[in-house]
Design brief:
The strands form 7 sheets. A 5-stranded parallel sheet has the order 3-2-1-7-19. A 5-stranded parallel sheet has the order 9-16-10-11-12. Helix 1 runs parallel beside helix 7 and helix 8 crosses helix 10. It is of the alpha/beta class. The protein has 3 domains: 173 residues, FAD/NAD(P)-binding domain; 114 residues, FAD/NAD(P)-binding domain (3-Layer(bba) Sandwich); 93 residues, 2-Layer Sandwich (Enolase-like, domain 1). The protein has 11 helices and 26 strands. Helices cover 25% and strands 29% of the residues.
Amino acid sequence: MKHVILGNGPAGVIAAETIRKRAPSDQIVMIGSEDVPPYSRMAIPYLLMGNIQEPGTYLRKDPQHFDSLRIDQIHGRADSVDCKAKELHLTGGARVSFDKLLIATGSVPVQPPIPGIQLPGVHSCWTMEDARCIASLAKSGARVLQMGAGFIGCIILEALASRNVKLTVVEMGDRMVPRMMTELAGGMIKEWVQSKGIEVYTETRVEEITSSGSALNVKLSNGKVLEVDLVISATGVKPNIECLKNSELKLDAGVLVNEHMQTSHPDIYAAGDVAEGIDFSTGHRIVNAIQPNAADQARIAGIAMTGGGAQSLGALQINVLDTLGLISSSFGLWSGVKDGDHVEIVDRDHFKYLRLEFLGDVLIGATCVGSTDHIGVLRGLIQSKVRLGEWKSHLLRDPTQAMEAYLAKGQAQSAWMN
C-alpha cells in the first residue's frame, strides 16, 4: 500500500507517523512545498522574537527522524489531483501515484485587493521566507504597519513589538480579534495593546500603498497617510485548495470530509486547515483552522487510511491567545445563539472579563480575558454538553463558580469521556 501525504505541516507529519505505527510495511511519501524541513508556522513569531533559531521551528528535531521511519520526503508543489488515475501532478511535470492520499495542504494567506499590495516591502507572515524577509526589515526603530488584528495578527503583533519597532495596527472590524471575542472583550484587548505603546485603528482599512523609493506610503480610510518601512498583511487565511479545483472532489470553503476525514473519493482523505468537517456545537460544516484540530484530524485520518474506525466527534472552536501578556480565550458558540441567554462580568480597570453562553441549561460557549483559571473547566463543560440543572442559576449569579459546577457534574463528564 502506498500512502501519499500532500503537505508536511503538523497534520501531514502526524498522519505519516500514525500510518507508520499502524502499517510498518507500507510505503509513505510526504510532499512539502517549501525547501526546509517540516516546521510549525505557529513558531514563526518566536523565531522573529529571537527566542529560537530556524531549527527550533522544526516539528521533529532529529534530522534522521523521517528516514528512520522510512517516510520518503519530496520537495514539490501539486498543480492538480487526478482522482480517477490516482495521481498527483506536480509543478515541473512529475507525477506521483497513490493508493491512499491525504490532502494536508493547510491554509494560504488572503491577499486583500489593495493597490500596491505587491510592492517590495509588503509581506505576509506565513512562510519561512516571509520570516526571513521580515527579520531583515523589522529592525529596532523601523516603522511598521500591520493590516489585520485577528488571531494570527495578534501573535505577529507580539513578535514585532519585541523587536522594538514603531508599530501601527489597522483592523477593519470594530474590535481586535473580532472572530473570537465579543465586542467588549475585543475592545479591552485593544485598550491593553494601546497601553503598551502600539497605535491601533479599528473600523479602518488600508486603501492604497505607494512607494517613494525609500519608504512606503499607506493611505488609510480614516484620512491618515502613514510613511512606513514595512507593511505586514495579516488579513486572514483560507484553505489551500487551488490544486483541487478540477479534481472532482467535493469542495466548498475547504475539502468536504466525513467523520473519518474521508473526502468524496473513498481513497482520498483531508485533515487540518484545508478540511471542512462538522462543527461540534452546531452540526454545520466548518473549517476550524487551529493546530489542535489539525493534530486530531490527522490522527483520525491516519487510522482510517490504514483500516481503522476512528472518527471525529466534531471540531470544537477553541481559541487561546496571549497578546503582550494578556491571555484571552473563547470556546464553542462564544457569540451565543438565538433563544439562548448569557451572563457577563467585567472589570475594565484590571482587564478581566468573563461571559458564559447557555442554551437551556447547557453551557454552549464562553469568552474569557485576563485569567486562565476557568479555561479547562469551561472547555470541559462545553464539550460534555452536560445538563447543568440547578447549577445554571448558580452560574448566572456568579459565573466564576464554573469549577464548582464542573466538579458537581463530574460524573456526567466522566461518563461522556468514557
